[in-house]
Amino acid sequence: MAGDRALRRSAEREAATMSGYGMLVVVLLAIGLVVWGFTQFRDGADNVLAAISVAVGGLVAVFVSVGFYLLQPNQAAAILLFGAYRGTDRTTGLRWTWPWMIKKKISVRIHNITSERLKVNDLRGNPIEIASNVVWRVADTAQALFDTDDYKEFVHIQIESAVRTIGARYPYDDFTHQETTLRGSPDIISDELQVELQDRVAAAGVHIDECRLTHLAYAQEIAQAMLRRQQAEAVVSARATLVAGAVGMVEMALTQLSEKNVVELDDERRAAMVSNLMVVLCSERDTQPVVNAGSLYQ
């Protein structure tokens, strides 16, 4: 039972407060009573009644004035009574509550944080640099104020932890386009980062509105090597695509020549044509035609 009480989380609820404009009228009336009392002293009237009016009016004015507080848009105030949470007031404008109540103001505006560049090993063990931008706000003021020592610092630390977790969960890149990668799937990575971070900061009453990666690169010590690797993989991929296309074009040419009876090709002539077409299609330089005036068999 004691353990359950220790783990119990706070929950925001509405505080019993009132508009301060009505109480402002009370303060003005109390001040008017004090002024009236002083005028009675000056006119030599009953000093007892004047003294009572001055004392009562002054006490009421001071008592009511202490209970005023002001809330701006997207600002809230947690109300405490001798350390006990009594609710949260989110109504903007001039507000009033009992003078012995403590008011702890907290912003519920949108916050924007860009994390520092972190060095993380991706899924394949390659060191990378990664940073993110997070848009967040306080959703539960009671949890933010009373369940964490410093909710802003808590959010900052959890952002770093979540970015490290996501950065290590996926590879930086994949030229086969068969895996979810940090560079190739930014929307998926951002959504998963938001879910991961929301799970971590829920205990502080914080809501994550958006997460986006702002920096993603290989670490400097392997950047040149990985660049050469990317170039090599790109060349191999381009060559494979080029050869596959060339084979298809040669097959199509031979098929159409046979179907339309343009020329009869035996195996040797067919092999020579395939060789010539593959050279023309796969060469990186312009090819120069050579006219054979004789026979292929001479």
TrEMBL record:
It comes from the Bacteria. InterPro entries: Band_7 (IPR001107), Band_7/SPFH_dom_sf (IPR036013). Keywords: Membrane, Transmembrane, Transmembrane helix. SUPFAM superfamilies: Band 7/SPFH domain. It is found in: Membrane. Pfam families: Band_7 (PF01145). The chain crosses the membrane at residues 21-38, 50-71. This is Band 7 domain-containing protein. It is a single-pass membrane protein. SMART domains: PHB. It comes from Sphingomonas japonica. Residues 66-230 form the Band domain.
